[in-house]
Amino acid sequence: MSQVFHAHHDDTAFEPFELGTVQWLRRPGDNGNDKLSAGLWKVTPEEAPEPFDLPIAEDETIYIASGHLRIEIKDGATLDLTAGSMASLSAGAMTRWTVLEPTLEFFVYS
């Protein structure tokens, strides 16, 4: 079992995801931990031309490396995230995401 996970941003390592593409740093289940995963997510406005609802299934922390996303929290704040922005969403949050520019996001599910 690996105790260290390491990667460089590699455009050839991205694979299809639920929406957009992902380059995994740590896949769900790696090292026997189904609840912890991390990677880079790329998405464009063409891949998500309309806002989409996303119930947060597990705690998720994100860092926007480039691009622009808007996340509306049901009964809460609206997060306008651009390069350098961070957010942490708790499991159970009901969100609506809008992809405003091609975006590269680092995420951690826990």
Number of strands: 8
CATH fold category name: Jelly Rolls
**How many structural domains in the coordinates?**
1
How far do the termini sit from each other?
A: 19 Å
CATH architecture: Sandwich
Note the main sheet. Answer: 8 strands, antiparallel
Shape: globular
CATH superfamily: Jelly Rolls
Low-confidence segments = none
The SS-based structural class is: mainly beta
Number of helices: 0
What is the CA-atom radius of gyration, in angstroms? 14 Å
Order of helices and strands: EEEEEEEE
According to CATH, what is the class?
A: Mainly Beta
Helix content: under 10%
Strand content: over 45%
Taking all residues together, what is the mean pLDDT? 95
Pfam family, one: Cupin_3
Protein name: (S)-ureidoglycine aminohydrolase cupin domain-containing protein
InterPro entries: RmlC-like_jellyroll (IPR014710), RmlC_Cupin_sf (IPR011051), UGlyAH_Cupin_dom (IPR008579)
Domain (S)-ureidoglycine aminohydrolase cupin: 37-102
Can you characterise this structure?
The chain has 110 residues and is mostly beta strands. The protein contains no helices and eight strands. It has one domain (15-109): Jelly Rolls. Strands 1, 2, 3, 4, 5, 6, 7 and 8 form an eight-stranded antiparallel sheet that branches. The radius of gyration is 14 Å and the shape is globular.
